[in-house]
Specification:
The complex is a heterodimer of chains A (360) and B (132). With 360 residues, chain A is α+β, with helices and mostly antiparallel strands. Chain A has 15 helices and 8 strands. The chains are: A alpha+beta (360), B alpha/beta (132). Chain A binds chain B through residues 6, 8-11, 19, 33, 35-38, 40, 76, 79-80, 85, 207-210, 212, 223, 228-231, 292-296, 303, 305, 307, 309, 311, 317-318, 320, 322, 326-327, 329-331, 334, 359, and chain B through 1-4, 6, 25, 27-30, 32, 34, 37, 44, 46, 48, 50-53, 55, 71-78, 97-102, 105, 108, 112-114.
Chain lengths: 360, 132
Amino acid sequence: MSYIVPIGPYHPALEEPVHAKLYTEGEVIKDAEVFVGYNHRGIEKLATERNAIQTLVLVERVCGICSHSHALTYAMAVEAINGIEVPKRGEYIRVITAELERLHSHFLWLGIACHIIGHDSMFMHIWDERELVMDLLEKMTGNRVNYAMVTIGGSRRDISDDLRREILDACVKLKGPLDRIVEIALTDKTIAMRTKGVGVLTKEDALRLGAVGPHARASGVNIDVRRDAPYCSYGDFEFDIPVVDSGDVFARVVVRALECYESIKILQQALENLPATPINLGNKLVKIKEGQVVARHEAPRGQLSHMVVGNNSLTNYRVSIHVPSYKNTPTVPHMLRGNTVADAGLIIASIDPCFSCLDR
Amino acid sequence: MQEYKRIDISKDQIVPIAERMRKENRYLVMIHAFINTEGQMDISWDYAVNPAVESYHVVGETTVPSIGEIYDVAAIWPERELNELFNIQFEGLDTSKRLFLPEDMLETQGRGQIMVTPLSELVEKNRKEAEQ
């Protein structure tokens, strides 16, 4: 018996609106379609009516999870057009914020994944640990989301020596719970049964379909903008890029869990070697020179790109934002085929989709 | 600072470049478009040739070939977006369904989870309320 099962756009299992149609034969998904646009706020158009400082505030609101990533990538694009070189300390503070953001994003996703498969004790345990990261972000920036740490030419707030030591201590403190989370994720029978062999995306398909970030790395594609096109002093730090070949939901759990260790590694190096330079160039409002640039950043979900066109005025001529979920969401129908309706929610969630990012 | 290379091409070169990039396993970062200060459409295909981004531009064209057969959904989604937002025609692209806010969401009205009141009904309702 054939059915069309609609999911969303508003559904209890979805944090954000998206509409998926599953074409099933009994329990098995034969094909699927995804429709987006329910969260469109016209951010790109709004950016053309704002100056660079106003746009930083605007693009931070593209997403509540990776808000720093958007501000950072936009700032990098404007700095590239204007030939602005950011002081080292400003770059390191950007990296510290970005890696704390990655940690809280990965903890958030790991928790949600456990919640979807019904492992609620693990979900609460992971989110409890996430609070430590959120507290650090709040102490450092004054906010739990929309950190407003980036300005054109550097960072807006410095990190005091006390706070530096506190974050370093927290990095050590986080490792214990993280070890436990990884051990449970790798050995728990419930997690294995719900995730192994589910929603597989092969390496060849990941390359062909253009998957990015942890989603691609879980399919054996060794990509990471931090290493492939270094920016913000990422070249100063030693870190590994976890890559797993199996391409299933379990691999996505493993990759994100292991990436948390790498973020801690980067945080420790950045905090221990925080340069003694100014943090910015004085926060002056800049005219965006004539030119066009694409800046890329490895956001928690993958490669984020901002294209900025300037025409020697205070406002942007054009801003085009393309987010990792834009690359990863089209792979979902491919992953759903051959799986059961019961796993659809988990497979959709396994790419860590962000529809407010995607719709802009 | 990341490197960005702008390369202007003609529309005949779009497909051969895409084929070469795909063969070299280069990521299609994005397909962008905007109307430049001279009022011409500027479409760009950005590829990650690490550590740089190579950006191939076609200026002044509103009909260009699709590279959907080469880059699959990585190209099809941005092409559909640009078709819906800028009315750029991508030869070979299936535009029978909308990507953003599909019109057929009305099909399950009152039966499924999607409850959308058609705009015409809302206008009529507001008009009646205003009259009262």
